[in-house]
Design brief:
Number of helices: 5
Strand content: 25-35%
Number of domains: 2
């Protein structure tokens, strides 16, 4: 690993924060951003670059919510906030997340659960934000809402990657990529991504199978979903999850679309499948109810912006007929 070209001490430090350093590597200001003050970040954000692209703005998160000024209505949630907008928040730990493929990075503030929000700020659940920003589309890395999901994914990973998983030493930010490096044993850790399938099952009467998971809000029905196991193809995951959760057999398993879904670390891979046999037998562990539904007699459905709702809407529109 090439030695960083220059190191600068953190200036304009927020009261109570530990001293930290950031580095310039190949013309990029990176690393250690969680110790920079809002004041310092505000005064230097035009110079913060990664892969030669200017950081375009900032997101503020607290837990699984997006924090925005109260004067911004739900119907006009911005793609990001300008740095000047967070001056009065007086929040610690701003840092930069690089863009994908050399695109512009984004400044991100991760508020602790106990951080008191000033009265001029409010919180919006992230799933609600995605529904409001995307409507009937699926979020992608290049679509409206994509950078928010990326930022939230990385925030969670940073919270849980502070220490080396091999020797327990405190990790450091890698200077040339989005990774954590152990300075003692050299172990490198990248953001965790867990592939998961979600599938709409259609029978010969053109009905769709919808199920209620125990973790859902009461009354909500969605699709069968589950994580891919080591050594398993995605198509095998689809067939296994369906058999395990509702006791059905399927054929014609076909990939439809994918979506980043950081709740907590998933990449959702959407499929369609045709029912071939078996009677509905819910597992009682995850799924507590499941039925075949017609288009004109549907239960409450998942929110817009999710791949589950997208697949259901595709079936409603006759795409899989």
């Amino acid at each position: 690993m090439k030695k960083p070209e220059t190191q600068f001490p953190c200036r304009g430090q927020h009261p109570g924060l530990l001293a930290a350093k950031y580095v310039v590597y190949k013309g990029c200001l990176i690393g250690g951003f969680e110790a920079l003050s809002i004041k310092h970040l505000k005064h230097t954000h035009k110079e913060i670059r990664l892969n030669t692209d200017v950081v375009q703005g900032v997101y503020v998160f607290q837990g699984n919510t997006l924090v925005v000024p109260v004067h911004i209505p739900d119907s006009r949630i911005p793609e990001f906030l300008p740095f000047e907008a967070i001056q009065d928040l007086d929040a610690p730990k701003p840092f930069e997340i690089p863009g994908i493929g050399g695109g512009p990075g984004i400044g991100t503030v991760d508020l602790a659960p106990e951080f008191p929000l000033p009265p001029q700020w409010r919180k919006i659940p992230l799933r609600q934000v995605i529904a409001l920003m995307t409507g009937r589309t699926v979020v992608s890395s290049s679509s409206l809402g994509g950078p928010i999901l990326r930022a939230y994914h990385i925030i969670q990973w940073r919270r849980e990657s502070r220490f080396c998983g091999s020797c327990g030493s405190p990790n450091q930010d890698a200077p040339q990529e989005l990774a954590r490096v152990c300075p003692v044993c050299g172990r490198v850790e990248y953001p965790r991504i867990a592939p998961a399938i979600i599938v709409i099952i259609i029978n010969d009467q053109d009905q769709a199978l919808l199920a209620h998971n125990k973790q859902f809000v009461p009354g909500i029905y969605s699709l069968i979903a589950g994580f891919n196991e080591a050594g398993e193809t995605l198509e095998s995951t689809v067939a296994r999850e369906i058999q395990e959760e509702v006791g059905l057999s399927v054929r014609d398993i076909r990939y439809v679309t994918s979506q980043p879904w950081p709740f907590p670390y998933s990449l959702m891979l959407g499929f369609s499948a045709r029912y071939t046999g078996g009677s509905i037998q819910v597992d009682g562990v995850e799924i507590e109810d499941a039925h075949w539904f017609d288009r004109d007699r549907l239960p409450d459905l998942p929110g817009l912006g999710s791949v589950s709702r997208y697949l259901i809407n595709q079936w409603i529109n006759g795409t899989f007929s």
